[in-house]
Amino acid sequence: MKSHASKMITALALVLALALPLAGAAGAAEEKSAAQAAGSFEMFPDLVDAALVKGLVEHKQVGLLIDSRPKPTKYDQGHIPGALSLPFSAWEKMKGLLPADKGALIVFYCEGLTCPLSHKSAFAAQKMGYSNVKVYAEGWPEWKEKYGAGVSLAAAKPAASGPAKSLKAGKQEGSLDAQVFVEIMKTKPGSIHLVDVRDAGEFATGAITGSVNLTVDQVEKNLDQLPKDKPIVFVCGTGARSGEAYYLLKDKKPELNEVYYIDGEIEFAKDGTFQVKPGK
Hints:
Elements: H1 2-39, H2 50-57, E1 64-67, H3 71-75, E2 84-85, H4 91-94, E3 106-109, H5 117-127, E4 133-136, H6 139-147, H7 178-187, E5 193-196, H8 200-205, E6 212-213, H9 216-221, E7 232-235, H10 240-252, E8 259-261, E9 264-268, E10 274-278
Parallel strand pairs: 1-2, 1-3, 3-4, 5-6, 5-7, 7-8
Antiparallel strand pairs: 9-10
């Protein structure tokens, strides 16, 4: 009888021992699947957590930490200490900043689970032959919550000269006040030209009614098609790519005075509605 009970206990212990790692793996897979569904883009398979990034920051781990977000609108406003700014939009021009050692640890991050820039950067680095590439998918939002505001390069800027703008600006340069944007979309959506700069796959999962889909690259190729008779407003999921599009137009089409972007997180629904969480 004791022998039978002992065998039963041993068998149960073995089942539990096998189940725990499987549950952990399933949980990680579910988290990755949920994050990928939220962003609707291909996630880089090798992900790391904040603890590893903290090791890089504190020089307990050897490696290079790279911020894939646009520099003026995101990196300069705040970034993880020690991170190198290499915006994905400038990849071809700046990839020479990557280390000569193809086996060096490189960790990319951007604006959180719905931001594809770090994943795109990681795939691009891997394609170049780098073999120890990782992504900190939770990125800047989680780091800021866990460890504080990091490093900011933003300085107070004098008021811009030129024609006055008709819409209320947000806190960041070039941004449109989020509540003003919501009110416009409720009462007179046709008064602005709304451009969604997310990838086509993301746009297909949900987009604001009346918006047109042009990635940042497509915006650059279609500058002459943008209207001059109404404000242009760029949106994306986090404010990273929309800010990039804003600075692109500021550089390429300075005569377009009424250009804005939404600085903050936007949740897009399939029915064309949306919710905005303004940036801090």
